[in-house]
């Protein structure tokens, strides 16, 4: 079992326009509910997000500045939104107020989400906590790895008339941050044609896109890939060289497949000569995206982090 300490900070929502948060929000026709828990207990320790503000844009534009309560619950009009974490934020243990826990934000910022009528929607910002377990405010602990970066969509022409429902059309010409995170992974060693290989399969993933994306992308593509497993392949191709194969996230007709360019030295080998997965930054690569009813799309992948 391969584990890298990753924290998931659940940001389950925010205020809208002028309305103030209440302890028992009233949901009106056409609205859904976003909730923002700011405190969580993990492994006997409680943590709180402090000093954060949140800017939300969409059918209602809003800025949350008061995050002193343990939970904020606010109704919003249904639709597609973008949320950005701002302010001089930090994470603290509740038994040591004023002492900052070192964390690194992994998720895209801003993050995209959709809210349906009558729905309660969680939005998670993921953080890495080096060497101190996982911090996860509001949701279960995540102690696995992640892949993050930016998908750069080429400004291509619209799809043929026979395929007007291509959900990727509105992303063309845009740069969209992404993160795929998972709580655990299992590695299997093998030797094929004399080369030592490591095949890794993760537990269920959380797939997130940042920036402004359409409702169709969130509901038809991102949602279809939540909870599936990520598969990756590595091969020791020489005494000090490791080849990283494709990384595949696949759910029937929905798929994202990564081809990343990592310097072999950043992966390395263990004492027996098998690939040794560890956190590494990458500068470029490409990905293939496919969704039911859409044309396959190839995008450039820029400046990211790979932590198996």
UniProtKB/TrEMBL annotation:
Keywords: Signal
Extent of the signal sequence: 1-20
Protein name per Swiss-Prot or TrEMBL: Lipoprotein
Naturally occurring in which organism (per UniProt): Corallococcus aberystwythensis
């Amino acid at each position: 079992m391969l584990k890298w300490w990753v924290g998931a900070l659940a940001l389950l929502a925010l205020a809208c326009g002028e309305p103030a948060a209440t302890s028992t929000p009233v949901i009106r026709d056409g609205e859904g509910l976003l909730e923002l828990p700011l405190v969580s207990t993990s492994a006997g320790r409680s943590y709180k997000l402090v000093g954060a503000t949140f800017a939300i844009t969409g059918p209602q534009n809003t800025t949350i500045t008061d995050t002193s309560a343990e939970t904020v619950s606010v109704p919003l009009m249904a639709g597609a939104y973008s949320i950005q974490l701002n302010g001089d934020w930090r994470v603290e243990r509740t038994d040591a107020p004023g002492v900052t826990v070192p964390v690194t934000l992994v998720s895209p910022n801003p993050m995209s989400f959709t809210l349906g009528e009558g729905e309660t929607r969680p939005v998670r910002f993921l953080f890495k906590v080096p060497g101190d377990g996982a911090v996860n405010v509001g949701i279960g602990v995540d102690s696995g790895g992640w892949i993050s970066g930016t998908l750069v969509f080429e400004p291509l022409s619209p799809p043929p008339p026979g395929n007007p429902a291509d959900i990727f059309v509105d992303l063309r010409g845009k740069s969209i941050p992404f993160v795929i995170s998972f709580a655990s992974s299992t590695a299997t060693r093998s030797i094929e044609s004399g080369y030592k290989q490591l095949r890794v399969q993760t537990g269920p993933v959380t797939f997130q896109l940042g920036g402004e994306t359409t409702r169709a992308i969130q509901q038809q593509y991102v949602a279809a890939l939540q909870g599936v497993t990520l598969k990756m392949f590595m091969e020791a191709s020489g005494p000090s060289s490791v080849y990283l194969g494709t990384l595949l996230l696949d759910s029937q007709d929905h798929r994202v497949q990564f081809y990343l360019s990592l310097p072999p030295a950043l992966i390395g080998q263990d004492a027996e000569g098998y690939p040794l997965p560890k956190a590494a930054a990458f500068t470029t690569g490409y990905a293939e995206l496919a969704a039911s009813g859409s044309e396959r799309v190839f995008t450039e992948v820029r400046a990211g982090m790979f932590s198996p």
